[in-house]
TrEMBL record, chains A, B:
UniProt-recorded name of the protein: UTRA domain-containing protein
Superkingdom of source: Bacteria
Keywords for the protein's UniProt record, in alphabetical order: DNA-binding, Transcription, Transcription regulation
One Gene Ontology MF term: DNA-binding transcription factor activity
Domain HTH gntR-type, residue spans: 20-88
Stretches the record annotates as Disordered: 1-21
Classification via CDD domains: WHTH_GntR (cd07377)
Length: 255, 255
DNA sequence: CATGCAAACTGAACTAGACCAAAAAACCAT
DNA sequence: ATGGTTTTTTGGTCTAGTTCAGTTTGCATG
């Protein structure tokens, strides 16, 4: 970053300012510094050591402020790679039933998908419960990482009933939407979805896939798909970088 | 906490352990320490200085580990008051249309509500857009804090159309559900809801109401209620302590 | 017995460094 | 140019403290 102004005196330690506000102010000052320099979404921030100099503070304090901005969703980090300005959130309508690529493209962004794993395994307790089967029953396991404008934002683990989708692993699972495949190749329509949403932190595998630090906060979306006969045919666990999406949903309440 | 074992040697600095794993292990060790001593939900953890002694580490490192457990939702903190073990999450079915108190009681927990503000103000840009009115139009503003088992978990700001609910401020807004009031006193049924979900951090007012540190991560739920004629009658912004809820939802997708 | 005040405790925030490993950049040889 | 190697930069993690202000608590007073 060129011509960042050097802080001659520390603007954060003026004596007429209550200490309890300094963290807040450092965050604000940092944010102003970033917006002033008109970083574009996805662009890298100056290194922590540089920022620390500019703002005349220490690394730990600086990192606290950065973490704040991260929690707000204004910036994000890639593990050992630095801090970046967050692009605008993708609006994700839970009930629209749009495949990922179409949803992203409809918002004039670019979507890509990578297949990380495609195998047949035994259903874990959790998966078995969700799909209404006995623990250990064979299931297809499909793990993918999805990007928007080149940024990894989503890590998904799918688990499908083998009896519903025989030999589905033979298809190109990176290019095509699963629900699309279900309909076209297996005549299975998703006619009901159940969601479970919560925020947690990334495990090791998911963190690696998203180039994120293990322990980064994420939005978890667990989804169970039912076919036209009400049978549970597959479930998936989606882990979204929390700053990458804004969930929407519109429906009639049951009562 | 009685009889916490003193750490004679540091279990976290054994030489055969890669440094990149120590953070993870400290978190695990800390968590084991807590579960071993069978803290009950809502119970206070030992002070940071004590834990730092037990685990033979420094305040900063310890706080990093505590923050991790906080992000996972296992523990939470109240500002300047200490760390506490998180109670189980409340299951919140977005489309069930259950009033807060009923939802909580149905899960065998105890709910309370405090009224923080009830006034008539001018609609902000955001509120006006949501309710389909001009900026500056008068609206009722109702701010409440809601607790489960004595713990403040939810801060809500409601904005209602004045023309839909004349003189609603005269009712006891802490005791009664708003949707209940709508139906009983104004013959307005909520027949459609739109949600917007995202994670952010607490502002000052919300943080104070939840006894949380400003900047704590929260789950935001914005809700717009439509009446039987499709008219938008009110909206609210809910800020939930992120470890306090698990959102669920089941519906037919639109496609 | 309740009330109010002062002391002790505790979390919040900060200082000033250090070391390591992964990533990025520079460099060199083919 | 190109591919591989070395150097530098940088984030991740840690040590060892300090200061300050809000909470809690216990003691003394009315």
């Amino acid at each position: 970053m060129p011509s960042m102004p050097a802080a001659s005196t520390n603007p954060l330690r003026s004596s007429d300012m209550p200490a309890s506000q300094q963290a807040h102010d450092l965050r604000m000052t940092l944010w102003e510094l970033l917006t002033q320099h008109a970083l574009r979404p996805g662009e890298r921030l100056p290194s922590e050591r540089q920022l620390m100099e500019y703002l005349n503070t220490t690394r730990i304090t600086l990192r606290e402020a950065l973490s704040q901005l991260e929690a707000e969703g204004r910036i994000y980090r890639e593990s050992r790679r630095g801090w970046f300005l967050s692009p605008p959130r993708l609006r994700y309508d839970l009930l629209a039933g749009l495949p990922f690529h179409e949803m992203v493209e409809s918002q004039r962004r670019h979507a890509t998908t990578e297949l990380l794993e495609a195998s047949e395994t035994a259903a874990s307790t959790t998966v078995a419960r969700r799909l209404g089967m006995a623990e250990g029953t064979p299931v297809y396991r499909i793990v993918r990482a999805r990007s928007i404008d080149g940024r990894r934002v989503l890590y998904v683990e799918h688990h499908l009933r083998v009896d519903c989708f025989p030999d589905i692993l033979a298809f190109d699972l990176a290019a095509c939407s699963l629900t699309e495949l279900y309909r076209r190749e297996y005549a299975i329509r998703v006619s009901r979805v159940s969601f479970e949403l919560g925020s947690t932190v990334l495990g090791h595998q998911a963190a690696a896939a998203l180039y994120a630090a293990p322990g980064s906060p994420v939005q978890r979306i667990t989804r169970i798909n039912h076919d036209q006969n009400g049978r549970m045919v597959d479930c998936d666990d989606e882990y979204w970088r929390h700053d990458a999406i804004e969930l929407t949903l519109s429906a009639a309440p049951q009562s």
